[in-house]
Amino acid sequence: MSDSTTTSRRGADNSAAPRPGAAAATVQPRSGLYDPELAAHIAEHIGEGEEVPALSFEDLPDLPEDRFGDRELSWLAFNERVLELAEDENQPLLERVRYLAIFASNLDEFFMVRVAGLKRRIATGLAVTAASGMTPRETLESISSRTHVLMARHARAFSGGIRGALDAEGINLVRWEELSTQEQDRLHKFFRKQIFPVLTPLAVDPAHPFPYISGLSLNLSVLVLNPATGKEHFARVKVPGLLPRFIAVDAKGRPSAPTTQSKKGPTSFVPLEDIISHHLDHLFPGMEVVEHHTFRVTRNEDVEVEEDDAENLLKAMEKELLRRRFGPPVRLELAEGISPRIRQLLVRELGVVEDEVYTLPAPLDLTGLNLIADLDRSDLHYQRFVPTTHRFLAEVESASPTDIFAAIRERDILLHHPYDSFSTSVQTFLEQAAADPAVLAIKQTLYRTSGDSPIVDALIDAADAGKQVLALVEIKARFDEQNNISWARKLEQAGVHVVYGIVGLKTHCKLSLVVRQEPDGLRRYCHVGTGNYNPKTARQYTDLGLLTCDPDVGQDLTRLFNQLSGYAPQSRFHRLLVAPRSVRSGLVERIDREAAAARAGNPSWIKIKVNSVVDEAIIDALYRASQVGVPIDLVIRGICAVRPGVPGLSETIRVRSILGRFLEHSRIFAFANSSGPAFGEGPTSGPEVFIGSADLMHRNLDRRVETLVRLSDESQINDLIELIDVSMADSTSSWHLRSDGTWTRHHLDANGDPLSDIQHDLISRQRRRLSLGR
After folding, report:
1. Which residues cross the membrane (predicted)?
2. Which of 67, 226, 504, 610 is 20 to 30 A (C-alpha) from 639?
3. Which domain holds residue 487?
4. Over the stretch 352-375, which tens digit does the pLDDT of each residue have?
5. Residues in binding site for ATP
6. Binding site residue list for Mg(2+)
7. Where do runs of H (alpha helix) occur along 111-168?
8. Structure confidence at residue 27 (pLDDT)
9. How many Å apart are CA 665 and CA 257, to the nearest integer?
10. Residues 318 and 400 in one domain
11. pLDDT at position 681
């Protein structure tokens, strides 16, 4: 793929908004979710294009009722693909360990949010049938059946394969009984000094009710006998979450907290709960320990805030976070060997049903394997990769810092992270803006950012320098709420204007706008991305970003920020599609355009890369386009409700999924036909390509502010088309979605040799550029 550049600027007539009279499918509100008041509120604040008539498909066969895959089961299939990477012996060993931890962490969140949501719908009587045709109860039953199988397979992958491979490398995950007498003696001392003071045993009797079990905490159920009375008592001991999940014991038997630094000789790692369970006599002196077992509870931890009733969204969110800790249980994990009476007690006291109980071999909670995956063993990790400065930014590097504004004035710059460095591009863009006396204002969205964010620091520096700084902080980013609240307060205290977007909508778009005074007047510099302004995840996620000073994009971002922060009137955008008003309709219009071209005998195609596709209106438009012969390629990392390859419905649709070293996170939307895009006064022929923050899900298209920006440079457009084509190629390692909803992995050729890894190939390309001086 060639590097991207543009030297031309296109005028305001080059609009991304739908044209009057252009074709677009009618989008109906989903049953039970449509709120007329919210719709009116959105219409008032997020202005977009005009209503357009639907393209007629009356002569085509009716779409079958069973045309959608189930959202929840598709997500479980995605997590199964993660598990397949953990099971793959061709992956570096410690990366396989990390995939085990990722699988476990993913499943935790799935239960806390998706399963909890299904249970809530059933409990409140909102048991609306899903687009897949399944009721919430049927979906829960299918989830329970599938997750029992997957969790057992996950445990086997650890105990039956990966644990033995770690042993062979001198990384021994051992139980207490496997330690030598000397190692146990030293752990006795370690327990008394480092662990015992933190523990709090909680008894259960008429004077001590069953204790609250916090979500995702690891616990010991303990049955003790009082020799004086002959009575048995139940107690619970919480395994402290602030202590390391595993305790390292070096070759000389010395225990310590795990460290990423390499040590000489083999090292053993003992689960913390094993150490505690073999010292219960310290916690219950004078009592006999009859039995003990580990268990873990997952609770409903989804956040709900009635924004219309909340005068201060920040305070309302803090209150809701406190409430979240006490959500009802949705899963109970028990270690194998637990006695029937203790099992019955836990099930009764926690209020779970049998389908929510998962009995697994110890150790429970394999999210703790991240400690092992972090070990400094370069021979057991992916080869080290350091992102490089984008070539158009590197061209202006010298002994002095890069003048990033000069580079952007030369041309639009399309960034592809993590291959292109985030720190020398987006981060530098904001840091230079904060320090540049010519910069008058900075406007920035923040959805998720890191704990030591240089982005936040740059905004604070800019405010300290007297610039006008607006930060649109989305405090409702799931499981990052507390983090975002702290940054919102920090920014407010520094004098940054902090706003929280529009009531009823999450602000998910990734936008940065810098206003700079230059000799010929004010110039607006923009960044529109697919990923968060988070330096840490920018090294782990594949994302795209456009740096530009194009006047149309600058005007679009100015209008959008004004709508998000104040009461600006509705407006149309030149190169943006903005949800919730026009992303769905704009994409459906373009899908229908390619279908119309195909029906007229003109070759056309559609290529889309997103994290998930669930939206029925989008999928139906794709089906209609497929019915008239439009080739459609979809690269979907996660959830996919499309059923490809169904005769008479989706024969021209292909779906691939790529998982690997980096989390595929970029979103690309490409459309083409031989008669040209016919939008504005662009080229008479050639594809139309957008990048942006939106996935094809109801939440993105209806309940979030999302942006897609249309690219204008031919080489950038060709780069992204090639990226999708390579992702779809039979020579590229990927998973293929079949018409029955199952995924099959294609990672070996006919000779059993590995297929091409697209992420590895992009790393290699970056290294070649570096060695050639870019």
Report:
1. none
2. 504
3. 391-574
4. 999 999 999 999 999 999 999 999
5. 106, 541, 637, 665
6. 448, 478
7. 116-124, 136-157, 163-168
8. 34
9. 34
10. no
11. 39
